C-alpha cells in the first residue's frame, strides 16, 4: 500500500505516534499468538487478547461462560505468557459480547395455553406493579 509514494511501513515509522502504535500492535499480536497456542481452538475463537496494561494481559471473552473457563485456565495461560514475555505476570479477563457471536434470539419454547391462562389469572389478581407488567408482557409474547 502506498501513500504519497511511500510504502506503508515507512509511513508507520515516519511519526513517533505511529511508531508507538505499531510497536504496541506488534506486542499485542505476539501475545495473541502465545494465547492461541495455549488455549483450545474453541476458546481462542470465543476470546482474544485485547490489550496489555502494566504487567497484565487483557483478554476479552465473548460470554461469561468462556470467561469462567479461562479463569480456570489462568495459571496455565500466565505460565505460557511468562515463558516468552517475562514482564507480563498476570491476566485480566473482561467479558464483551462480540457481534460475531450474538446471544441466541429466543429459546423457541412455547408454553401450553393452560399455563398462559394460569399466568394471566395471576397477573389479574395482582395490584399494579412491575411484576404485573412483566406477566402481561410475557403472556402477550407467548400468545402471538
Fold and architecture overview:
The chain is α+β, with helices and mostly antiparallel strands. It has helices spanning 8-12, 16-38, 41-45, 64-84, 113-125, 130-143, and strands at residues 2-3, 6-7, 47-53, 56-61, 90-95. The strands form two sheets. Strands 3-4-5 form a three-stranded mixed sheet. Helix 2 packs across helix 4. It is elongated. The termini are far apart. The model has no long low-confidence stretch (mean pLDDT 85).
Strand order of the largest sheet: 3-4-5
Global geometry? elongated
Largest sheet: 3 strands, mixed
The structural class is: alpha+beta
Strand content: 15-25%
Radius of gyration: 25 Å
Distance between the termini: 54 Å
Instruction: Give a count of the beta strands, DSSP E runs of length 2 or more.
Output: 5
Question: How do the helices and strands follow one another from N- to C-terminus?
Answer: EEHHHEEHEHH
SSE inventory with pairings:
Layout: E1 2-3, E2 6-7, H1 8-12, H2 16-38, H3 41-45, E3 47-53, E4 56-61, H4 64-84, E5 90-95, H5 113-125, H6 130-143
Parallel strand pairs: 4-5
Antiparallel strand pairs: 1-2, 3-4
Helix pairs in contact: 2-4, 5-6
Summarize the structure.
This protein has 144 residues and is an alpha+beta fold. The chain has helices at residues 8-12, 16-38, 41-45, 64-84, 113-125, 130-143; strands spanning 2-3, 6-7, 47-53, 56-61, 90-95. It is elongated.
Key structural traits:
single chain; 144 residues; alpha+beta; three-stranded mixed β-sheet; two-stranded antiparallel ribbon; 6 helices; elongated
